[in-house]
Amino acid sequence: MSPPPAQLLDSDEFRRQGHQVIDFIAEYYSRIAEYPVHPDLVPGFLSRRLPQNAPSRPEPDPLSAALNDVRDLILPGITHWQSPRHFAHFPASSSTVGALGEALAAGINVVPFTWAASPAATELEVVVVDWLGKALQLPKSLLFEGGGGGTLLGTSCEAILCVLVAARDRKLAEIGEGRIGDLVVYCSDQTHFAFRKAARIAGIRKDNCRVIPAQREDTFALPPAGLEDAVQADVEAGLVPVFLCTSVGTTPTTAVDPIRELCAVASPRGVWVHVDAAYAGSALICPEFRHLVEGMEAVDSLSMNPHKWLLANNDCCALWLKQPSALVAALGTDDDVILKDAAARDDGVPVPVVDYKDWQISLTRRFRALKLWLVLRCYGTDGLRDAVRAHVRIAAAFEDMVCADARFEVVAPRLFALVCFRLRPPSIATSPLEANNLNERLLAAVNATREGPYMSCAVVGGVYVLRCAVGSTLTEECHVREAWKVVQDHATLILAP
């Protein structure tokens, strides 16, 4: 017999099952290094081991049975992003407080889409995004206390789409809605593909997305001269420049675009400048990295993901805007009387009301602020700096190992905790294609090692490179030394006559 609805949130049962789940997760972390980081499986493997239909009635102890299946079926079939040997992609950082913050938010389970729907949830988010913005030393103009403001979304992809729609509508209000086909947006060929996807969703014509070649000699950053030429050509053709997506920490190499110089080109022409700092924005919590983003005062918006490198667990993307009113104008929903709230008052004095449903695509939203607030309180900004710096030191140690082996080369400058490297071509007669194939084979061999590391790749300027991204909370220098030994051993085998 299934329990009646009143018992589905029974306190005693919640406590018993909660202990089961916490113990299971703790055991998982204690044994995570035993799992291959990336499974060797074929599609459909799980559906063949699970029933075709959901049960009509629960088992005698359904949670215990389900956790057994998680242990036996699910864990062996996932990529273990929290493994100390996970060096692919960028980190999805985890912490005990971040995980428990997720549990706390799920347990309270409010829907703070308007201020009135959950006043403290909304106001905590207002406080937290300013806390984080100050910790990153963002310009005051992007913070609530400086006339701007911020919010917490799921991902940077969502943030980019939101601000692109705001920029689009602001420009169309000036030139007329009928000219949407004339709007042009700009990025570099190193910009994450999420921007081009967002442009399509926002109604920007595919051939009006200008992808400007990055500087190839060393930085892989977006060149201001290239942007200037592209914008000028579009203006002369009667088109309307509307949006520039810059990057602080590109996905392939963590390149940093020259923000000040790009704003000098774009801002005078009324182009909205957004900074996508999904990964590397976390590093701005350390003073030694802030020189990389000089000129941030001129940008219109910035997004970064605390879930990548600030221990906040998935998902948590922070977005700040200089003019939140432009976002509200584009995404606001004031037509439904059910969603309208009475004006908030403090001692009889009207105060601004933030309804975060007007800052995002969907109406329903999660109480992400609680998790981030707990992370900031329990680790402090000093603790978060220590975590970032530890990963940077480990990545620097790996870079030194690569440089000490004459068979290898570092392909792009290491700015944060990502090392892009490759096996040098064995002779000057080796073609670029052969060199790329050589490194593709090397990565495949490294990732096929059951007890070895898991890395990813990128093709930068036509060159295939291996990416070692340090960022797992559990990673220590011993893990990158072990990883490097695996890379060296496979390189020796591949280069053997």
Fold blueprint:
Layout: H1 11-31, H2 62-74, H3 96-108, H4 119-135, E1 149-153, H5 156-175, E2 183-188, H6 194-201, E3 209-212, H7 224-236, E4 240-247, H8 259-266, E5 272-276, E6 301-304, H9 306-309, E7 317-321, H10 324-331, E8 345-346, E9 349-350, H11 368-403, E10 408-410, E11 418-423, H12 432-447, E12 456-460, E13 463-469, H13 477-495
Parallel strand pairs: 2-3, 2-4, 4-5, 5-6
Antiparallel strand pairs: 1-7, 6-7, 8-9, 10-11, 11-13, 12-13
Helix pairs in contact: 3-11, 4-11, 5-6, 5-10, 7-8, 11-13, 12-13
Structure description:
It is built from 13 helices and 13 strands. Helix 7 runs parallel beside helix 8. Strand 2, helix 6 and strand 3 form a beta-alpha-beta unit. By secondary structure, the protein is of the alpha/beta class. The model has no long low-confidence stretch (mean pLDDT 92). The radius of gyration is 25 Å and the shape is globular. A 7-stranded mixed sheet has the order 1-7-6-5-4-2-3, sandwiched between helices. It folds into 2 domains: 257 residues, Type I PLP-dependent aspartate aminotransferase-like (Major domain) (Aspartate Aminotransferase, domain 2, 3-Layer(aba) Sandwich), CATH 3.40.640.10; 118 residues, Alpha-Beta Complex (Aspartate Aminotransferase, domain 1), CATH 3.90.1150.10.
